[in-house]
Write a structure and sequence with these properties.
Layout lengths: L2 H12 L4 H16 L4 H10 L2 H8 L10 H11 L5 H19 L1 H10 L4 H4 L11
Helix pairs in contact: 1-2, 1-6, 2-4, 2-5, 2-6, 3-4, 5-6
């Protein structure tokens, strides 16, 4: 996949009016995601996504503490100029849903398994909890 195809998929998913708007959200979400992925999962993301996305991810220094899913959305909102929480969540889900489709279910499951609860929904996946005994 090429960068412009990734931007187009985010534009369609997020229903953005322009490529520039979709690209801005894509770059921002990837920047924040880059601080919360590491190890083999990060290497695979870098390998599977277009070069431009890989560079954004690889340039980020992993954070000492993973943000909760709501904190992740708030971090994106702040970087995008103080979007409302619903608008930021829409953007995050639009980007991460496209990323999940690009990299496949196995890698998406592995990424969400190492992040705090709540991220699977941001990636457009169900978050199953074990049944109570």
């Amino acid at each position: 996949m090429r960068w412009n195809e990734l931007v187009q998929q985010v534009r369609a998913s997020g229903q953005y009016a322009t490529d520039a708007e979709a690209e801005r959200v894509l770059r921002t979400v990837l920047t924040v995601l880059g601080t919360h992925t590491s190890g083999e999962e990060r290497r695979e993301l870098v390998r599977l996504l277009p070069v431009e996305a890989a560079v954004i991810l690889a340039r980020q220094t992993p954070a000492a503490r993973s943000l909760t899913a709501p904190e992740f959305v708030e971090a994106v909102a702040a970087r995008l100029g103080g979007l409302t929480h619903p608008a930021a969540r829409w953007g995050v889900s639009s980007v991460l849903g496209v990323v999940a489709d690009c990299v496949g279910d196995d890698l998406t499951r592995r990424i969400t398994a190492v992040l705090p609860r709540g991220y699977a929904l941001l990636f457009g996946r169900a978050e199953l909890a074990p049944a109570a005994a």
